Amino acid sequence: MLPELMTIGYEGTTSAEVLALLRRSRVQLLIDVRAVASSRKPGFSKTLLAAGLQTEGIGYLHLPGLGTPKEGRQAVRAGQPHKMEAIYAEHMKSDRAQAELAHAIQLAQTDRCCLLCFERDHTTCHRRIVAEAIHSATGQPVTHLAVPV
Question: Residues with Cβ < 8 Å from 7, sequence gap 6 or more?
């Protein structure tokens, strides 16, 4: 039986809350699917995030090729997630995106992985699309985590 695949967005929350939820959810590996793994929110830039995860016994991997291109991020901020989806679909045709997706699929079949991006609402975030692609390849269940507000 394949492990559950999870996703999480950190918008409107703290790193401590995200780390606690990941620990409770028994995540083994956090896959950062942001194009740029930096953040103005404390604790969510690549180095600090990886260090915080390490203290919880959770691995960290950044796959920037699975991130949304700048135009896609701008579309989401403008309230046009449908535009982001078209931009992201085109981006996912690239060799790098396909290679990193194959890597994520491989990892997700053996570890309890969680895909991380910014948006709280997975329906407007590209991590949902990545999770759907992994699910299509493996059939494993997907759960979208959210820190309670």
Answer: 114, 115, 116, 117, 122, 125, 127, 128, 130, 131, 142, 143, 144, 145
CA-based nearest residue to 122, from 112, 130, 110 = 130
Residue 23 to residue 146: CA distance in whole angstroms = 13
CATH number of 5-145: 3.40.1010
Name the pTM for this structure. Answer: 0.96
Residues β-bridged to residue 62: 32
Per-residue pLDDT reduced to its tens digit, 16-65 = 999 999 999 999 999 999 999 999 999 999 999 999 999 999 999 999 99
